[in-house]
Amino acid sequence: KFQQKWWHKSVIYQIYPRSFNDSNGDGIGDIKGMIQKLDYLKKLGIDVIWLSPVYESPNVDNGYDISDYHSILAEYGTMDDMNKLLLESHERGIKIIMDLVVNHTSDQHPWFIEAKKSKDNPFRDYYIWRDSVNGQEPNELNSNFGGSAWEYDESTGQYYLHFYSKQQPDLNWENEEMKQSIWDMMNFWIDKGISGFRMDVIDLIGKEPDNLIKENGPKLHGYLQEMYHNTFGKHDLLTVGETWGATTGNAKLYSDPNRKELNMVFQFEHMQLDKVPGKQRWDLKKLELVELKQVLSKWQYALDQEGWNSLFWNNHDLPRIVSRWGNDREYRVESAKMLATLLHGMKGTPYVYQGEEIGMTNAAFDSIDDYIDIETQNIYKERIKAGFSEEEIMRSFYLKARDNARTPMQWSDEKNAGFSTGKPWMKLNPNYTFINVENTLNDKNSIFYHYQKLINMRKNNTTLIYGTYHLLNPEDDSIYAYERILENKKILIVCNFYEHEKEFSYEMSNNSKAEILISNYNNSSLDLKKIKLRSYEAIMYEVKE
Ligand code: TEU
Ligand code: CA
């Protein structure tokens, strides 16, 4: 029933350019630095790189504020470097997908500079302008980085919309010319030989600010179909939308191939289970495993026959998973491998964020001044004003700030973790002295090799790629056990989510046999009726009846 696609069996690796590898000692990661590490990525076995933005940008939001879609930020290199990265990646069988940030531009983009000049400027309508209402903002829409989504522009006496920082004005997708420029830009990159797009906050482009509609506006899916026809529809590319507002219902709209929109979306329902419902992620709540199972299973079931899931724990906006839901102290290695097994056993395309494969952890900075992220800085001010205590705010940042994921990649125990010979743009996590790539490569039991094995298994195990998911124990609050079934083949995945030991019993016929495909311990149970699980033990079995 399923038409097979190359990205069904691919694993994607996300590079956050600023923090990956610095080749020239200016303290900032760059494209030449990436080229130097392609052999490392090849060794890990990944098929695709998702490159966070490397375009020209004033870097208010680390490249998610683009001032020229057609050129490379000088700090990162040149277009020649970019061409070389594509070439060298392709030589190693690695594809590249680019970040597409088209909900907004930078306020330094020539379109916005023009638009600001006057109300009748030809570019005015590329953005969203409104008059004030009773001397106030046009309405109560808020920015995701705190405060109003409207910023007053003195010179023309109107407000413009920005769902992120005020240096990131929102584009007006009702404007045909604007859309045409976006299609041209996408085709420029497609012609260069990229293999797809990760689409930043794409569920916002159908916004209707006058009706207070941010996500999932009525025209959203129409725009995506237009995009498909005008750009990637003619090519065999990977398209993944970042959609914080995705539900299992609309995920099918995005990812049903017959509708000609996207291949898959990032849904964030599971990543929001450790906050107070309806509140911000800074309002902390403990994760309940039963809820995690409910949500992930709902997504697995819903997209089993229609659409496709993306699988991830981490990206540049999320805290490190081993610190968040694992145990980054006594069981860092075990719990990182457990979380990897749990995720990579599921149906969908897995994403690995740089450093996840070596178990990098959150970095708790002592002072708010060490946090660089504009979101963190804005939220800090907002929360102080709202009366939260400094201590409370910092605690939520230790657990949830985006900078946790953005500290430089830890390559070795040398100066600056081998990331840069100069002064890194951002503080390192001091644990680089023992958590680093060099150590991980020298240890055959490392997290790295566990990921490597999981990634390689997916390439040719059709049960792992296409098997139907089935949750075995919805009520159990410490073990996550599920099966993947394809015709007469069966894979069983059993993960102990916590430190305390527990037993799990799998129901099967007496003559079934189990073979361990991967485990994070030696001598894992082979008796499926009595699987004894040690701290964070995770086992993947092939079950033969
Ligand atoms: O993120 C979208 C987004 O909504 C997050 O910033 C979110 O608000 C927060 O991280 C978690 O609650 C995308 C990019 O991934 C992010 O880096 C950009 O800052 C943002 O869009 C604007 O382009
Ligand atoms: Ca550099």
From TrEMBL:
GO molecular function, one term: alpha-amylase activity
Keywords, ordered alphabetically: Glycosidase, Hydrolase
The keyword Hydrolase belongs to this UniProt entry's keyword annotation: yes
Entry GO CC: cytoplasm
Pfam families tied to this protein: Alpha-amylase (PF00128), SusG_C (PF23915)
Reaction(s) the record says it catalyses: Hydrolysis of (1->6)-alpha-D-glucosidic linkages in some oligosaccharides produced from starch and glycogen by alpha-amylase, and in isomaltose
PANTHER family: ALPHA-AMYLASE FAMILY MEMBER, OLIGO-1,6-GLUCOSIDASE 1
Family: Belongs to the glycosyl hydrolase 13 family.
Protein name: oligo-1,6-glucosidase
Record organism: Niallia alba
